[in-house]
Amino acid sequence: MFLNLFKKNREPRPIFEALGTDMHCHLIPRVDDGSKCIEETVECLQTLRTLGYSKVYITPHFQTPRFENDEDDITRRFMEVKTKVADAGVDIELAGIGGEYRIDSGFYNRLKSPRFLRVAKKYVLVEFSLHQQMMGCDEMIFEMQMNGHEVILAHPERYPYLNVRGSRMEQLKNQGVYFQVNVLSLGGFYGDDAKRRAFEMLDLGWVEFLGTDTHNTMYAQALTDLSHDRKVAKVLETHEFLNKTL
């Protein structure tokens, strides 16, 4: 599925200290396609700490019908993870719980009684299908904004139907949608097209957040290898992101 472009067994470098906060990862065990056990969660968080992150928001999937998660249950599980991570001695702050909400066939019903888990109690992280955008996305995002939610679109560089230079992408920006690029996209983890689009958006000044989107130890190893990438280090040195405000 992913291109394996990274060398193995490299030590992590703390290049992500400039960001400080990871606001997109899937490290609550067994609630989505992320971490499978608390031991994997602890290992991934320890790697993130070594890479320079000091604070993390966990954002499990909410997707119909694949991941029919409940906000109260996710919050309870998050508190359990927080306790176990502290007991394991990982020196990283689990600052809060959010969600990665797929705008899909069940999303409109969610809008009728919104209980969104928000990153930093402010931002709702949403995603589109990787294959085609659902009709009515703009209207649903607008309704969220009218209800006082700040909307972040997860990994727009991964949607092949969104042309960075096209009107659709620009319309989202004009609508006030924040863009969050996956940092691994900058190293080609999701392919050359996603990498190209990520850098195009950076050049346009359209990227407000970087997220790791860490799911498991494979992602943690890829991030470790990416910490040796000089081009990524330069991005972190020359661009301002909102991660550190969270």
Structure characteristics:
246 residues; alpha/beta; TIM Barrel; six-stranded parallel β-sheet; 8 helices; globular
What can you tell me about this protein's structure?
The structure is a single chain. This protein is an alpha/beta fold and 246 residues long. It has one domain: TIM Barrel (Alpha-Beta Barrel), CATH 3.20.20. A six-stranded parallel β-sheet has the order 3-5-6-7-8-9. It has a three-stranded parallel β-sheet with strand order 1-2-4, with helices on one face. Helix 1 packs parallel to helix 7. The longest helix is centred in the N-terminal third of the chain and has 17 residues. The protein is globular. 42% of the residues are buried. The N terminus is likely disordered.
Categorize the overall geometry.
globular
Q: List the helices and strands in order.
A: EHEEHEEHEHEHEHEHH
Q: Tell me the β content.
A: 5-15%
Distance between the termini: 32 Å
Strand arrangement in the largest pleated sheet: 3-5-6-7-8-9
| CATH C-level class | Alpha Beta
**What would the average pLDDT be, to the nearest integer?**
94
Do you know the CATH topology?
A: TIM Barrel
Low-confidence stretches: 1-7
Largest sheet: 6 strands, parallel
Q: What is the alpha-carbon Rg in Å?
A: 17 Å
Structural class of the helices, strands and pairings?
alpha/beta
Q: Provide the domain count.
A: 1
Helix share of residues?
25-40%
Count all strands and give the number: 9
Task: Examine the secondary-structure arrangement and name the CATH architecture.
Answer: Alpha-Beta Barrel
Regarding quaternary structure, what we see is single chain
Query: CATH homologous superfamily, by name?
Result: Metal-dependent hydrolases
Q: Total number of helical segments?
A: 8
